[in-house]
Known about the structure:
The complex is a heterodimer of chains A (about 325) and B (about 250).
Chain A (H helix, E strand, L loop, with lengths): L1 E12 L2 E12 L3 E5 L6 H8 L7 E6 L2 E2 L4 H6 L1 E4 L11 H11 L4 H14 L15 H12 L6 E5 L7 H16 L3 E6 L2 H7 L2 E6 L2 E6 L1 H6 L5 E7 L6 H7 L3 E7 L2 E6 L2 H14 L4 E7 L3 H9 L2 H9 L4
Parallel strand pairs in A: 3-8, 3-9, 6-7, 7-8
Antiparallel strand pairs in A: 1-2, 1-4, 4-5, 9-10, 11-13, 11-14, 12-13
Helix pairs in contact in A: 3-4, 3-5
Chain B lengths: L7 H19 L3 H22 L7 H13 L3 H10 L2 H6 L5 H31 L3 H26 L6 H18 L11 H8 L2 H14 L6 H27 L1
Helix pairs in contact in B: 1-6, 2-3, 3-6, 3-7, 3-10, 4-7, 4-8, 6-7, 6-11, 7-10, 7-11, 10-11
Bound molecules: adenosine-5'-triphosphate and magnesium ion.
The site of adenosine-5'-triphosphate has 13 residues of chain A, from strand 2 and helix 1.
Amino acid sequence: MQAIVVDHLTRRFENIVAVNDVSFQVGVGEIFGYLGPNGAGKTTTIRILTGITLPTSGNAYIFDYDIQKESIRARRCMGIVPETSNIYDDLSAWKNMMFSGELYGVRLPDRMERAKELLATFDLMERKDDRVRVYSKGMKRRLTIAMGLINNPKLLFLDEPTSGLDVQSNLIIRQVIRDLHERGVTVFLTTHNIEEANVMCERVAIINRGVIAAIDAPEKLKATIQSVQSIEIGFDHPEPGMMEALQKIALVNEVRKEGDKVRLFTSHPSDVLPLVIDYLQTHHIRPLSVNTHGPSLEDVFIRLTGLEETSRASSERGGS
Amino acid sequence: MSYSPEYLASDVKGAWAIAKKDLEIYYVKPNIYISGILFPLFMLLAFAVGRAAPLVSLVPGLIAITALFSASSIEPVSVPIERRTRTFDRLLSAPVSMFSIVLGESISGFMFSGSICFLLFIPGVILYQPALISIAILVLGIILSCFAFASFGTVFAAYPTENVGEVMSLLNLIRLPLIFISGVFIPLESMPLWGQTVAIISPLTYASDILRFGFEGTTHFGPWTDLLMLVVFAIIFQVLGNFLYRKFNI
Lengths: 320, 250
Ligand SMILES: Nc1ncnc2c1ncn2[C@@H]1O[C@H](COP(=O)(O)OP(=O)(O)OP(=O)(O)O)[C@@H](O)[C@H]1O
Ligand SMILES: [Mg+2]
């Protein structure tokens, strides 16, 4: 049995195909990342899998229950954390938890115990009787996740759980996901944060414009694009003409200036490195730092989603 | 549309949870009191002043319109707001059927209007001193009316908008004319034939008729027909609600 089976799922809106003939499976106990740029169809996929939106065609199964025909059984297994923190502003965190538990048929003593546990885990216990209206964004997000876990789900859907949160909230959420994983809970997580997918997920599907471009373990995806390994050199002040000179070194595919650093792309970093050092020594240039990088999931993502141009623009602004 | 009774227990519990949550959040919102209580009261007073009728004769009509306006005032406010805050998705993705959601929304309107009508009912009983059997029929009539009207309000809230005003104007487009064709102000007998025909399809007609019967002993359709029709309307609105929410909200 698989936790999720998606079989040729398509969802059309008036004139766009938000999800286009998507198929994949998620094993029980797996942390599965669904990675894609804005508008790729991530939320639409989750809405179909949780039965809020109907697919135009295709089928989806949650623990073998057809999400359309046996939606109630399927939903009993799952916890849902939607993109927007949809909590009741006029109720306290505690009452939000109680309502959520009641809606999922969790018995009173169980839901009180579970709510205490979860509010403590998410560091909300002290504020549990405050109206949620006065909560910060991160607190609301944490409460939304806590509510999604009140029924002890076997499968948790997280739609961009950490986007826009500070380090503290992020760490709590990541730790919770790891703990769930240890207890055998399946996690389906959408994100456009590549690093998050890289560190959290066992397998990642990359979706772009409603189509799945690749599905595999992050390391395997990286292995498919060995050509984008790189050497990064930091300088005190760049010499004129250096970029051109570096570009001429054999086996260097591309040279890119990234902030105060220069990055040389190559599929053979170990061969290129001595040549670079040579060049620097002959020109009496002292590097501040030298690093080599394997292909990042970001590189895979850029390659597969054809976002090359946008990414270059953002690198030049100093991001990476 | 099929319903599997296997889920009945969890659906009823879910409906109750939804109703309690609605009451807790929305009974403090002032616009619910304005459109649900003050508005029908002013309508009636305006009418009474024009006609110089004895105030006491207004009690059955007042309870009937208050039942309609208060029962159908919570969902048309709560559902669009919950669409905007996305909390409505929470209900749609919960392990309960649409039946449970529609029922839960209706129960919250029912409880709200039921308690208000009860407050009006007590002075009515003191003024009219009806027989015990009439009191029993009145209580049943009020309960059925409030539930039918709450289901009526829930149907309108199915209109897929995040804007309370849109649902409210749609609702008032229907709800206001009902006052004039349902024998609340003008007895059915003195209405033209077309008016009497239209009155048959208005649930308010039966609510007002049963209240008049209970307090004053006069009736147009007879109490059992009134009660039966209120049940029929409640069922129609529940089924229609289920259909419309499915059609427009998922
Ligand atoms: N109800 C709707 N009506 C019309 N179009 C819609 C609707 N919902 C989504 N879409 C369209 O479907 C596409 C995919 O949207 P979706 O919300 O699934 O993207 P996403 O991957 O979650 O993006 P983001 O990262 O911005 O959340 C978008 O082009 C969006 O405009
Ligand atoms: Mg999204």
